[in-house]
Amino acid sequence: MVPSADRELVTLERDECLALLDLEPIGRLACASTPGEGPEVVPVNFSLRNGIVRFRTGDGELLQRVLDQPVSLEVDRFDWYHRTGWSVLVSGRATLVTDSEERELHEGRIQTWAPGARPHVVAIDVATISGRRIELHQRPLDGAGYL
Amino acid sequence: MTPRIDHRHWSHAPEPVGKDDHGLGVLAEDTCLSLLGSEAVGRLGFSAGGLPVIYPVNFFLDERSVVFRSEPGQKLEAAAHNSVACLEVDHFDTMNHAGWSVLATGRLSIADADRAEALARLPLSPWALDEPSRFIELEVELISGRVVGPHPRPTSGLDTPSS
């Protein structure tokens, strides 16, 4: 286990955040608390194109909860052995894609892993994006044979 | 030693007890708690200034309390207000388009001095903390989980964990 003194939390640039976001097939979508309900975090398959995050959903509760509301999407990767990792958070308003041509185009681009019909495409216009990474500062080897 | 099931290995995917309206496998509450307890990093979701945010945290599950540490910031502020928050843990298998996720919801609180002393004995070691931190707890009131994807394929025996 690498001691925590040798690691540093680094803030990621916007470009790095977008590049990392683009790598991931699954993100975690957060809806805000409402008077009757707590916050919710659910995994979704998503796509990123021209700074817009899109995901598909069915006719359920999720659609009603997110429409025209502020939402966030998080992606991350962790390295359990080195105890490092990164995470990126994007936030913006969720809107329903109503243009049928645009909807069909994006429906085809987002492959969902979950069963069930997901005919609606929801777009998140990314207003803010932030990310952090744990950087590991490896000590130079001192030449002693520890193995 | 009791064999420890590694749910990160897809051949040990959790078994659903039924299906929800969307066709997703529903996980039993004790399965959800066991999955939550098997993870060390979760994603804390809460509202900060009316906006939903998600931040990864290193945590340890003590009975039904999710324990983590935080430096001054949004998480500590939410805990100071006893806000409702949720912790999500998941694992996905990109090859099989399969995975599971568990969501635990409750209220946040900052541990007082006595409690913090007890919590300091837990095997919790944050990966990265710069500033003085406090112990925060999320007492799990609701927990649910879902599983998607194919049933485990028969294993060749080569990828069976030895323990």
Task: Walk me through what this model shows.
- The complex is a heterodimer of chains A (147) and B (163).
- In chain A, a hairpin with a 4-residue loop joins strand 5 and strand 6.
- In chain A, 34% of the residues are buried.
- In chain A, strands 2-3-4-7-6-5 form a six-stranded antiparallel beta barrel.
- Helix content of chain A is 18%, strand content 46%.
- With 147 residues, chain A is of the alpha+beta class.
- Chain A has three helices and seven strands; from the N terminus they run E-H-E-E-E-H-E-E-H-E.
- Chain A is elongated and about 65 Å long.
- Chain B is mainly beta.
- Chain B has helices spanning 29-37, 74-80, 113-119, and strands spanning 18-19, 25-27, 41-48, 51-62, 65-70, 84-93, 98-110, 134-148.
- In chain B, a hairpin with a 5-residue loop joins strand 1 and strand 2 (25-27).
- At the A-B interface, strand 1, strand 2, strand 3, strand 5 and strand 6 of A face strand 3, strand 4, strand 6 and strand 7 of B.
